[in-house]
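Pinned message: reference record for Ribosomal RNA small subunit methyltransferase A
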Amino acid sequence: MKHVARKRFGQNFLHDKYVLEDITSAIGPAPDDTMVEIGPGLAAMTKGLLRTLKHMHVVELDRDLVARLEKDFPREQLTIHAGDALKFDFGAIPVPAGKKLRIVGNLPYNISSPLLFHLAEFASVVEDQHFMLQKEVVERMVAEPGCKTFGRLSVMLQWRYDMKLLFVVPPEAFDPPPKVESAIVRMIPVAEQLRCDGETLEAVVQKAFSQRRKVIRNCLAGMFTEEQIIAAGIDPTHRPEVVGLAQYVALANILKPV
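Predicted structure (tokens):
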């Protein structure tokens, strides 16, 4: 029976075999990798990865799709975690000593940002991540200071990851086709993360970009003095999107030294 895509789960199933081959090639699975796929759906990507992988994990919320996966794949090949990826403990997946987790998926566009922030909590146990996301979201993730798309998502994810937009995927590669272009992003946890308190950095960045049309001195009024902003290496007359990651980290460390 054909599975009907459900809007509430943000389901758009990738079916273009050439795009699937490109994604599998970009991921470059090795037989003994510990890989987990978020939202396998109809298992188009899963099947491609399992041509190389001995075993993989998947996290799927839709119970009908869970039942289909259980029917189509033996347990020794696929471990199915039925549940919400937003609440899933990725750190609980067993990984051999000296190895790290590889995470992939066509992420539901309606929860992409909160899911990326949830996954960031597990960056220390992750080797890399390859995701299909709305192209606009990927552009915000990889944006550099000075770009109009540089914002909270850029700063918070670049604090934890080196990221690259690999290629764009057109709507017609999906069923049903989304109304937007998609893109594949590679995310590799940074080797040496700039030291600061994460919650403090989040608070600073959120306040800075809450009024992004204003200069940063006005955006951060009440949180920092002008002297403190200058001490962090920032021109107080600049707008938030011009300020780089290192300067936001410096502000966080003024507020809460580590």
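Pinned by admin. Summary line: Confidence is low (pLDDT under 50) at residues 3-10.
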